[in-house]
Protein backbone atom coordinates (compact mmCIF):
# COMPACT_ATOMS: atom_id res chain seq x y z
CA UNK A 1 0.00 0.00 0.00
CA UNK A 2 1.50 3.34 -1.05
CA UNK A 3 1.34 6.53 1.04
CA UNK A 4 -1.70 7.91 -0.81
CA UNK A 5 -3.66 4.71 -0.33
CA UNK A 6 -2.69 4.62 3.34
CA UNK A 7 -3.93 8.19 3.85
CA UNK A 8 -7.17 7.43 2.02
CA UNK A 9 -7.72 4.29 4.10
CA UNK A 10 -7.26 6.17 7.39
CA UNK A 11 -9.55 8.95 6.20
CA UNK A 12 -12.31 6.54 5.13
CA UNK A 13 -12.22 4.92 8.57
CA UNK A 14 -13.38 8.28 9.98
CA UNK A 15 -15.76 9.34 7.18
CA UNK A 16 -19.02 8.25 8.86
CA UNK A 17 -18.16 10.16 12.03
CA UNK A 18 -17.17 13.31 10.12
CA UNK A 19 -20.32 13.18 8.00
CA UNK A 20 -22.41 12.88 11.16
CA UNK A 21 -20.74 15.96 12.64
CA UNK A 22 -21.14 17.92 9.40
CA UNK A 23 -24.81 16.97 8.96
CA UNK A 24 -25.70 18.08 12.47
CA UNK A 25 -23.81 21.32 11.89
CA UNK A 26 -25.22 22.10 8.44
CA UNK A 27 -28.59 20.33 8.26
CA UNK A 28 -27.91 19.29 4.67
CA UNK A 29 -26.65 15.95 3.40
CA UNK A 30 -25.13 17.47 0.29
CA UNK A 31 -23.38 20.24 2.24
CA UNK A 32 -22.15 17.68 4.75
CA UNK A 33 -20.55 15.77 1.88
CA UNK A 34 -18.97 19.00 0.63
CA UNK A 35 -17.51 19.64 4.09
CA UNK A 36 -16.09 16.11 4.29
CA UNK A 37 -14.57 16.51 0.82
CA UNK A 38 -12.90 19.78 1.85
CA UNK A 39 -11.58 18.04 4.97
CA UNK A 40 -10.06 15.34 2.74
CA UNK A 41 -8.32 17.99 0.62
CA UNK A 42 -6.83 19.57 3.74
CA UNK A 43 -5.82 16.19 5.17
CA UNK A 44 -4.26 15.17 1.87
CA UNK A 45 -2.20 18.37 1.81
CA UNK A 46 -1.14 18.10 5.45
CA UNK A 47 -0.54 14.36 5.62
CA UNK A 48 -0.75 12.32 8.84
CA UNK A 49 2.80 13.00 9.99
CA UNK A 50 2.84 14.32 13.54
CA UNK A 51 -0.91 13.80 14.12
CA UNK A 52 -1.26 11.81 17.33
CA UNK A 53 -5.06 11.67 17.46
CA UNK A 54 -6.29 11.43 13.87
CA UNK A 55 -9.98 11.22 14.79
CA UNK A 56 -9.75 14.37 16.90
CA UNK A 57 -7.76 16.19 14.23
CA UNK A 58 -10.28 15.34 11.51
CA UNK A 59 -13.21 16.30 13.75
CA UNK A 60 -11.57 19.67 14.41
CA UNK A 61 -10.95 20.29 10.73
CA UNK A 62 -14.44 19.33 9.57
CA UNK A 63 -15.91 21.46 12.37
CA UNK A 64 -13.88 24.47 11.22
CA UNK A 65 -15.00 23.89 7.63
CA UNK A 66 -18.63 23.74 8.77
CA UNK A 67 -18.21 26.87 10.89
CA UNK A 68 -16.92 28.76 7.85
CA UNK A 69 -19.87 27.50 5.81
CA UNK A 70 -22.37 28.54 8.49
CA UNK A 71 -20.83 32.00 8.81
CA UNK A 72 -20.92 32.41 5.05
CA UNK A 73 -24.57 31.36 5.06
CA UNK A 74 -25.42 33.88 7.80
CA UNK A 75 -23.68 36.67 5.88
CA UNK A 76 -25.94 35.97 2.90
CA UNK A 77 -29.21 36.05 4.89
CA UNK A 78 -30.37 39.03 2.86
CA UNK A 79 -30.61 36.53 0.00
CA UNK A 80 -33.06 33.91 1.34
CA UNK A 81 -32.62 31.44 -1.50
CA UNK A 82 -28.95 31.10 -0.58
CA UNK A 83 -29.77 30.00 2.95
CA UNK A 84 -30.80 26.34 2.75
CA UNK A 85 -33.17 24.87 5.27
CA UNK A 86 -32.46 21.45 6.79
CA UNK A 87 -33.08 18.45 4.57
CA UNK A 88 -36.43 17.05 5.73
CA UNK A 89 -36.46 13.48 6.99
CA UNK A 90 -39.24 12.66 4.56
CA UNK A 91 -37.21 13.90 1.58
CA UNK A 92 -34.57 11.30 0.77
CA UNK A 93 -31.78 12.71 -1.34
CA UNK A 94 -30.45 10.53 -4.13
CA UNK A 95 -27.05 10.08 -2.50
CA UNK A 96 -24.56 7.30 -3.00
CA UNK A 97 -26.13 5.39 -0.11
CA UNK A 98 -29.83 6.26 0.36
CA UNK A 99 -30.22 3.89 3.32
CA UNK A 100 -27.30 5.53 5.13
CA UNK A 101 -28.73 8.98 4.35
CA UNK A 102 -32.11 7.97 5.77
CA UNK A 103 -30.58 6.53 8.94
CA UNK A 104 -28.50 9.66 9.46
CA UNK A 105 -31.48 11.96 8.96
CA UNK A 106 -33.70 9.88 11.24
CA UNK A 107 -31.00 9.84 13.95
CA UNK A 108 -31.19 13.63 14.25
CA UNK A 109 -34.71 14.64 13.28
CA UNK A 110 -35.85 17.64 11.28
CA UNK A 111 -37.33 19.32 14.34
CA UNK A 112 -33.93 19.36 16.03
CA UNK A 113 -32.25 20.67 12.90
CA UNK A 114 -34.78 23.50 12.58
CA UNK A 115 -33.99 24.56 16.16
CA UNK A 116 -30.23 24.32 15.49
CA UNK A 117 -30.68 26.46 12.36
CA UNK A 118 -31.77 29.34 14.59
CA UNK A 119 -28.54 29.29 16.63
CA UNK A 120 -25.54 31.47 15.95
CA UNK A 121 -22.77 29.48 14.19
CA UNK A 122 -20.48 29.39 17.25
CA UNK A 123 -23.37 28.31 19.52
CA UNK A 124 -24.33 25.57 17.12
CA UNK A 125 -20.77 24.27 16.87
CA UNK A 126 -20.22 24.29 20.64
CA UNK A 127 -23.51 22.48 21.28
CA UNK A 128 -23.06 19.87 18.55
CA UNK A 129 -19.46 19.03 19.40
CA UNK A 130 -19.98 18.92 23.16
CA UNK A 131 -23.51 17.62 23.66
CA UNK A 132 -23.68 15.30 20.66
CA UNK A 133 -20.06 14.19 20.31
CA UNK A 134 -18.66 14.68 23.83
CA UNK A 135 -15.76 16.88 22.73
CA UNK A 136 -14.27 18.73 25.72
CA UNK A 137 -14.52 22.50 25.83
CA UNK A 138 -10.74 22.97 25.86
CA UNK A 139 -10.72 21.41 22.36
CA UNK A 140 -13.80 23.31 21.18
CA UNK A 141 -12.46 26.68 22.35
CA UNK A 142 -9.72 27.09 19.69
CA UNK A 143 -12.19 26.25 16.90
CA UNK A 144 -14.53 29.09 17.85
CA UNK A 145 -11.73 31.41 18.95
CA UNK A 146 -12.95 31.64 22.56
CA UNK A 147 -11.77 30.53 25.98
CA UNK A 148 -12.99 27.16 27.31
CA UNK A 149 -15.27 29.02 29.73
CA UNK A 150 -16.76 31.08 26.89
CA UNK A 151 -17.21 27.93 24.79
CA UNK A 152 -19.07 26.36 27.72
CA UNK A 153 -21.37 29.40 27.84
CA UNK A 154 -22.04 29.12 24.10
CA UNK A 155 -23.11 25.49 24.52
CA UNK A 156 -25.22 26.36 27.56
CA UNK A 157 -27.13 29.07 25.67
CA UNK A 158 -27.67 26.72 22.75
CA UNK A 159 -28.85 23.96 25.06
CA UNK A 160 -31.53 26.17 26.58
CA UNK A 161 -32.93 26.90 23.12
CA UNK A 162 -32.74 23.30 21.95
CA UNK A 163 -34.65 21.99 24.97
CA UNK A 164 -37.86 23.16 23.27
CA UNK A 165 -37.43 20.59 20.46
CA UNK A 166 -40.35 18.12 20.42
CA UNK A 167 -40.08 14.46 21.31
CA UNK A 168 -41.84 11.67 19.45
CA UNK A 169 -44.42 10.87 22.14
CA UNK A 170 -48.04 10.03 21.38
CA UNK A 171 -49.07 13.22 23.21
CA UNK A 172 -46.87 15.24 20.85
CA UNK A 173 -48.33 13.50 17.81
CA UNK A 174 -51.88 14.20 19.01
CA UNK A 175 -51.04 17.85 19.64
CA UNK A 176 -49.31 18.16 16.27
CA UNK A 177 -52.33 16.62 14.55
CA UNK A 178 -54.52 19.27 16.18
CA UNK A 179 -52.16 21.98 14.91
CA UNK A 180 -52.22 20.63 11.35
CA UNK A 181 -56.01 20.30 11.41
CA UNK A 182 -56.33 23.87 12.67
CA UNK A 183 -53.93 25.06 9.98
CA UNK A 184 -55.88 23.35 7.19
CA UNK A 185 -59.18 24.73 8.52
CA UNK A 186 -57.78 28.27 8.74
CA UNK A 187 -56.29 27.96 5.27
CA UNK A 188 -59.53 26.78 3.70
CA UNK A 189 -61.52 29.45 5.48
CA UNK A 190 -59.07 32.23 4.64
CA UNK A 191 -58.69 33.03 8.34
CA UNK A 192 -55.48 35.07 8.23
CA UNK A 193 -55.41 35.73 11.98
CA UNK A 194 -55.79 32.05 12.83
CA UNK A 195 -52.98 31.16 10.43
CA UNK A 196 -50.67 33.73 12.03
CA UNK A 197 -51.44 32.33 15.47
CA UNK A 198 -50.29 28.87 14.37
CA UNK A 199 -47.05 29.98 12.70
CA UNK A 200 -43.71 30.66 14.33
CA UNK A 201 -42.62 34.22 13.44
CA UNK A 202 -39.61 32.78 11.57
CA UNK A 203 -41.53 29.97 9.87
CA UNK A 204 -40.20 28.79 6.50
CA UNK A 205 -42.17 27.35 3.58
CA UNK A 206 -39.96 25.40 1.16
CA UNK A 207 -40.95 23.71 -2.10
CA UNK A 208 -38.98 21.06 -3.93
CA UNK A 209 -38.14 21.60 -7.63
CA UNK A 210 -41.17 19.63 -8.85
CA UNK A 211 -43.53 21.72 -6.72
CA UNK A 212 -41.89 24.88 -8.05
CA UNK A 213 -42.53 23.75 -11.63
CA UNK A 214 -46.26 23.46 -10.91
CA UNK A 215 -46.45 26.93 -9.39
CA UNK A 216 -45.15 26.88 -5.81
CA UNK A 217 -42.61 29.45 -4.62
CA UNK A 218 -39.23 27.90 -3.80
CA UNK A 219 -38.84 29.64 -0.45
CA UNK A 220 -41.17 31.81 1.62
CA UNK A 221 -40.03 33.10 5.02
CA UNK A 222 -41.84 34.70 7.92
CA UNK A 223 -45.31 34.22 9.37
CA UNK A 224 -46.96 37.07 7.43
CA UNK A 225 -45.72 35.84 4.04
CA UNK A 226 -46.51 32.17 4.72
CA UNK A 227 -50.00 33.04 6.02
CA UNK A 228 -50.68 35.06 2.85
CA UNK A 229 -49.53 32.09 0.75
CA UNK A 230 -52.03 29.73 2.36
CA UNK A 231 -54.98 31.99 3.15
CA UNK A 232 -58.02 30.77 1.22
CA UNK A 233 -56.16 27.77 -0.21
CA UNK A 234 -55.47 24.11 0.61
CA UNK A 235 -59.18 23.41 0.11
CA UNK A 236 -58.62 19.89 -1.17
CA UNK A 237 -55.59 19.01 0.97
CA UNK A 238 -56.33 16.08 3.28
CA UNK A 239 -55.03 15.40 6.75
CA UNK A 240 -52.53 12.52 6.61
CA UNK A 241 -49.77 10.69 8.42
CA UNK A 242 -46.42 11.07 6.65
CA UNK A 243 -43.99 8.44 7.89
CA UNK A 244 -46.02 8.49 11.09
CA UNK A 245 -46.03 12.28 11.53
CA UNK A 246 -49.13 14.47 11.06
CA UNK A 247 -49.16 16.34 7.75
CA UNK A 248 -51.31 16.79 4.68
CA UNK A 249 -51.60 15.41 1.16
CA UNK A 250 -53.11 16.75 -2.03
CA UNK A 251 -54.25 13.81 -4.14
CA UNK A 252 -55.63 13.75 -7.67
CA UNK A 253 -57.47 10.73 -9.02
CA UNK A 254 -56.65 8.86 -5.84
CA UNK A 255 -52.91 9.38 -6.35
CA UNK A 256 -50.90 11.59 -3.96
CA UNK A 257 -49.43 14.52 -5.88
CA UNK A 258 -48.13 16.93 -3.23
CA UNK A 259 -47.15 16.19 0.36
CA UNK A 260 -47.18 18.92 3.04
CA UNK A 261 -44.61 17.97 5.70
CA UNK A 262 -44.85 20.05 8.88
CA UNK A 263 -42.21 20.70 11.52
CA UNK A 264 -43.90 21.71 14.76
CA UNK A 265 -42.51 22.81 18.12
CA UNK A 266 -45.12 22.91 20.85
CA UNK A 267 -48.12 24.42 19.07
CA UNK A 268 -46.22 26.50 16.54
CA UNK A 269 -45.35 25.51 12.98
CA UNK A 270 -41.63 26.07 12.33
CA UNK A 271 -41.46 24.82 8.75
CA UNK A 272 -43.60 23.42 5.93
CA UNK A 273 -42.02 21.39 3.12
CA UNK A 274 -43.94 20.86 -0.13
CA UNK A 275 -42.81 17.59 -1.69
CA UNK A 276 -44.04 16.82 -5.20
CA UNK A 277 -41.21 14.79 -6.69
CA UNK A 278 -42.92 11.49 -7.65
CA UNK A 279 -39.98 9.36 -6.51
CA UNK A 280 -39.88 11.03 -3.11
CA UNK A 281 -43.65 10.86 -2.69
CA UNK A 282 -43.62 7.21 -3.72
CA UNK A 283 -41.15 6.34 -0.98
CA UNK A 284 -43.25 7.84 1.80
CA UNK A 285 -45.56 5.91 4.09
CA UNK A 286 -48.78 7.89 3.60
CA UNK A 287 -52.08 7.36 5.38
CA UNK A 288 -55.04 9.66 4.69
CA UNK A 289 -56.86 10.43 7.95
CA UNK A 290 -60.45 11.44 8.60
CA UNK A 291 -60.87 15.02 9.77
CA UNK A 292 -61.73 15.25 13.46
CA UNK A 293 -65.29 16.49 14.09
CA UNK A 294 -65.51 19.92 15.55
What are the SSEs and their pairings?
Blueprint: H1 3-12, H2 15-26, H3 29-46, H4 54-75, H5 98-108, H6 110-117, H7 121-132, H8 137-144, H9 148-162, H10 170-189, H11 192-198, E1 199-207, H12 209-213, E2 219-221, H13 223-230, E3 238-242, E4 245-252, E5 255-265, E6 268-275, H14 278-283, E7 286-288
Parallel strand pairs: 1-6
Antiparallel strand pairs: 1-2, 3-4, 3-7, 4-5, 5-6
Number of helices: 14
Shape: elongated
Radius of gyration: 21 Å
Integer tally of domains: 2
* Low-pLDDT residue intervals, each spanning 5 or more residues: 77-96
CATH fold description of the largest domain: Butyryl-CoA Dehydrogenase, subunit A, domain 3
Features:
single chain; 294 residues; alpha+beta; Butyryl-CoA Dehydrogenase, subunit A, domain 3; Nuclear Transport Factor 2, Chain: A; 2 domains; seven-stranded mixed β-sheet
Structure explained in plain terms:
- There is one protein chain.
- The chain has 2 domains: 3-162, PhyR, sigma-like (SL) domain (Butyryl-CoA Dehydrogenase, subunit A, domain 3); 170-288, Nuclear Transport Factor 2, Chain: A (Roll).
- Helices cover 55% and strands 16% of the residues.
- It has helices at 3-12, 15-26, 29-46, 54-75, 98-108, 110-117, 121-132, 137-144, 148-162, 170-189, 192-198, 209-213, 223-230, 278-283; strands spanning 199-207, 219-221, 238-242, 245-252, 255-265, 268-275, 286-288.
- A 7-stranded mixed beta sheet has the order 2-1-6-5-4-3-7.
- A hairpin with a 2-residue loop joins strand 4 and strand 5 (255-265).
- Helix 2 (15-26) runs parallel beside helix 4 (54-75), helix 4 crosses helix 8 (137-144) and helix 7 packs across helix 9 (148-162).
- The protein is elongated, with a radius of gyration of 21 Å.
Amino acid sequence: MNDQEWLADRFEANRTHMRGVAYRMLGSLSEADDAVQETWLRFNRAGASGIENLGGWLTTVVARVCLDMLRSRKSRREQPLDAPMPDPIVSRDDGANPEEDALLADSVGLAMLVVLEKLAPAERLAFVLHDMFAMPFDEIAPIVGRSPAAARQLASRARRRVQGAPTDSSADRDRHREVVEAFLAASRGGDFGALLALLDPEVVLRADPTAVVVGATKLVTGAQAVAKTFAGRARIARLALIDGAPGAVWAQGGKPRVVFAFTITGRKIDAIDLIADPDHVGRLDLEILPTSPG
